[in-house]
């Protein structure tokens, strides 16, 4: 009975090692792809319209299978698959639209392919799917526009360019379309107005209208632009916040507690108030007559960053100290007073000079190595027991 238990245990260990090795060695699933000739963002619906195109599928396991889903999927016909290259097939697609339009607005049809694999047991197994989208726009009977409004960030004394992107999705042409923008500060006070040029807009046509506003004399900070789009006696209201930047870097916070008798890291978190990158940003820190510096960093527009230096507290005793932090950027210098605290640890802990990065793969490899070693020991022990002294 003991020998049988040992054999079962040996088989179990073999199976477990094989399973773990299989988990690590299994390749990524096939990533099937689909391509087509260029398609417009919108197909504008007309009764009984026909759309024909060629599509391709590639990088499949054994074969690919075209499919359609979404609106108008019952109006799609696929041609036969034709081998056009190694692991690549092409097929034709024909979409026959119905004689009558449905509800106005956007309708979506999805054309895709399934990655299929032939199996002995079930015949065909679907692995993954990928699809492309066809957007159909059914026009509104009345005057109707779809519009977006953009208010980009600027800097002090720059000219801001606000834009309306307008699409006419109604059947009637529009004779007069223009936009007006009112600008408000963070107190809700109106501080400026801008107006775009006017124009007509034919049915299905899309255009961009631009209005310029001079920010001269306006303080930096967050502002709100309220855009009103006027079209043939109708109007559409939109708004967006934007920033006016100034060449400045502000300190958000900093490390203020350090252990006595050690060299410790000090982080200074800073924020860029400029609508543009700031290069060669660095700082120097003075504590108790000792100065140390941080390496330079680059911050993006209105971004944040961290300046990192190292404070030598080996000669500092427990207590609070005044510090001075100087930040240098773009030829400017900014000084800020700070306070830090040096503390004495209550107990000596275990100091780890580096962190151990353990992830799933590392743990699995470690487990496999342990199981392999254990398995070898078991095999040697069983062989020794079978042969005897």
Give an overview in words.
The protein is mainly β and 389 residues long. It has four domains: 1-30 and 358-389; 33-138, Immunoglobulin-like; 145-245, Immunoglobulins (Immunoglobulin-like); 249-343, Immunoglobulin-like (Sandwich). The protein contains two helices and 27 strands. Strand 8 (105-119) and strand 9 (123-138) form a beta hairpin.
Describe the structure using short key phrases.
389 residues, mainly beta, Immunoglobulin-like, 4 domains, six-stranded mixed sheet, 2 helices, 27 strands, flat
- The gross shape turns out to be flat
Q: State the helix count.
A: 2
Distance linking N and C termini:
21 Å
Q: What is the CATH topology descriptor of the largest domain?
A: Immunoglobulin-like
- Relative strand content: over 45%
- Residue share in helix: 10-25%
Write the SSE topology.
Layout: H1 2-25, E1 33-36, E2 43-44, E3 50-58, E4 63-70, E5 76-78, E6 82-85, E7 88-96, E8 105-119, E9 123-138, E10 145-150, E11 154-155, E12 159-168, E13 174-184, E14 190-195, E15 199-201, E16 206-214, E17 221-231, E18 234-245, E19 249-254, E20 257-259, E21 263-272, E22 278-287, E23 290-293, E24 297-299, E25 304-312, E26 319-329, E27 332-343, H2 360-387
Helix pairs in contact: 1-2
Short description:
The protein has 4 domains: 1-30 and 358-389; 33-138, Immunoglobulin-like (Sandwich), CATH 2.60.40; 145-245, Immunoglobulins (Immunoglobulin-like, Sandwich), CATH 2.60.40.10; 249-343, Immunoglobulins (Immunoglobulin-like), CATH 2.60.40. By secondary structure, it is mainly β.
């Amino acid at each position: 009975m003991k020998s049988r238990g040992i054999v079962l245990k040996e088989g179990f260990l073999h199976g477990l090692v094989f399973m773990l090795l299989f988990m690590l060695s299994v390749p990524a699933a096939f990533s099937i792809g689909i391509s087509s000739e260029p398609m417009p963002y919108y197909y504008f619906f007309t009764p009984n319209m026909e759309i024909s195109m060629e599509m391709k599928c590639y990088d499949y396991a054994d074969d690919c299978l075209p499919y359609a889903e979404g609106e108008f999927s019952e109006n799609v016909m696929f041609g036969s698959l034709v081998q056009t290259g190694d692991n690549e097939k092409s097929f034709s697609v024909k979409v026959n639209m119905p004689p009558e339009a449905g509800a106005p607005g956007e309708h979506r049809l999805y054309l895709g392919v399934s990655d299929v694999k032939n199996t002995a047991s079930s015949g065909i197994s679907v692995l993954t799917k990928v699809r492309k989208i066809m957007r159909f726009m059914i026009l509104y009977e009345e005057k109707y526009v779809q519009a977006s409004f953009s208010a980009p960030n600027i800097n002090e004394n720059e000219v801001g360019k606000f834009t309306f992107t307008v699409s006419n999705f109604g059947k009637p042409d529009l004779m007069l379309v223009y936009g007006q923008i009112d600008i408000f500060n963070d107190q809700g006070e109106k501080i400026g107005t801008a107006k775009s040029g006017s124009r007509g807009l034919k049915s299905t046509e899309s255009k961009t209208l631009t209005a310029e506003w001079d920010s001269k004399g306006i303080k930096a900070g967050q502002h709100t632009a309220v855009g009103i789009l006027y079209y043939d006696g109708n109007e559409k209201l939109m708004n967006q916040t934007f920033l006016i930047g100034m060449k400045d870097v502000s300190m958000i916070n900093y490390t203020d507690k350090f252990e006595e008798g050690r060299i410790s890291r000090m982080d200074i978190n800073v924020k860029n108030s400029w609508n543009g990158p700031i290069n060669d940003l660095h700082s120097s820190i003075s504590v108790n007559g000792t100065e140390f510096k941080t390496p330079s960093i680059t911050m993006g527009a209105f971004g944040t960053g961290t300046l990192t230096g190292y404070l030598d507290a080996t000669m500092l005793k427990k207590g609070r100290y005044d510090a001075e932090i100087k930040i240098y950027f773009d030829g400017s210098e900014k000084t800020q007073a700070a306070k830090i605290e040096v503390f004495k640890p209550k107990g000596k802990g275990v100091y780890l000079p580096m962190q151990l990065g353990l992830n799933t793969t590392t743990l699995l490899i470690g487990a496999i190595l342990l199981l392999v070693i254990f398995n070898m020991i078991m095999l040697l022990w069983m062989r020794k027991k079978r042969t005897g002294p």
